[in-house]
Amino acid sequence: MRFSSGLLVATGLCFALALPQSVLATPKGIAIERASGPALTKASAHYARSRAMLIAALREFDKATQLVNPDTLIDSKEWRSIVYDRAEELQRILAPQPRASEGGVRFDPQPGLLGEAATTVPESSE
Question: Can you give the residue range of the structural domain that contains 56?
Answer without folding.
Answer: 33-96
